[in-house]
Amino acid sequence: MDLRQFLMCLSLCTAFALSKPTEKKDRVHHEPQLSDKVHDDAQSFDYDHDAFLGAEEAKTFDQLTPEESKERLGKIVSKIDGDDDGFVTVDELKDWIKFAQKRWIYEDVERQWKGHDLNEDGLVSWEEYKNATYGYVLDDPDPDDGFNYKQMMVRDERRFKMADKDGDLIATKEEFTAFLHPEEYDYMKDIVVQETMEDIDKNGDGFIDLEEYIGDMYSHDGNADEPEWVKTEREQFVEFRDKNRDGKMDKEETKDWILPSDYDHAEAEARHLVYESDQNKDGKLTKEEIVDKYDLFVGSQATDFGEALVRHDEF
């Protein structure tokens, strides 16, 4: 499927979704739950396994003996200990948990990296990305699919420059990840807010008013009666979104809406795992302390640790 076909498909899917008058569009970026299981260690450690490995990896934990499980857990601990000082801190454990939960992001980056690093030098320049993504479509001054590719390219270039910390227009894998998934990086949050406001601000005044806010998530489609959730969203806008009560959302108000300061589940789980495993109560874990509590971290089950270790090397 080429770029035009993909974008047309995406557009049609979006139009179909928005044509449903009762379907809500959500722009808020929330940190995902670590597991859909109940966190009750008195019953099982399933929640902790999901948090530590990711739910998909944890599902395959059913074939290793306790000895094999301990051995592989020890290998993971070596990867978590980022500064190689022989201890795992709460911060190192939190970083690992966040990596395990967002492994799909790194998988997506790997797929796209191969298609954009055209000269295979381990970097992706803006020129490489532009040529791979827009090369041939920009030659057509009047595309018949309704997409403004030049406008899309300008927006992509702005985001690429924001992700490119050293300003050389050449992205490392980390910078390319920030470009593709800006909501995951603090220094990219302003561009997420800017792009969101540009999408919703139909009159171009630099703000989001009530009707633009509602219009982005709900299509009347000839219906005079609004669903209850739309009425609730109107109340949310007036009572909570528009903090200064001027009838519209500015940049900071939009940021508070789409990028809320969520409870840090990864840090809470990291502190829990350290508390439960820290035998000498020094606030950090040795490999021995973690392996001794293997049942808390991974249990006597199997997983594809090799794949996880390779990806964490890149992380």
From TrEMBL:
PROSITE patterns: EF_HAND_1, EF_HAND_2. InterPro entries: EF-hand-dom_pair (IPR011992), EF_Hand_1_Ca_BS (IPR018247), EF_hand_dom (IPR002048). The lineage of its organism: Eukaryota, Metazoa, Chordata, Craniata, Vertebrata. Residues 68-103, 104-139, 151-186, 188-223, 265-300 form the EF-hand domain. GO terms for molecular function: calcium ion binding. Pfam families: EF-hand_5. PANTHER family: CALUMENIN, RETICULOCALBIN. Keywords: Calcium, Endoplasmic reticulum, Glycoprotein, Golgi apparatus, Membrane, Metal-binding, Repeat, Sarcoplasmic reticulum, Secreted, Signal. Residues 1-19 form the signal peptide. Its main location: endoplasmic reticulum. Belongs to the CREC family. The gene is CALU. This is Calumenin. One of its GO terms (cellular component) is sarcoplasmic reticulum lumen. It is found in: Endoplasmic reticulum membrane; Golgi apparatus; Melanosome; Sarcoplasmic reticulum lumen. It comes from the Eukaryota.
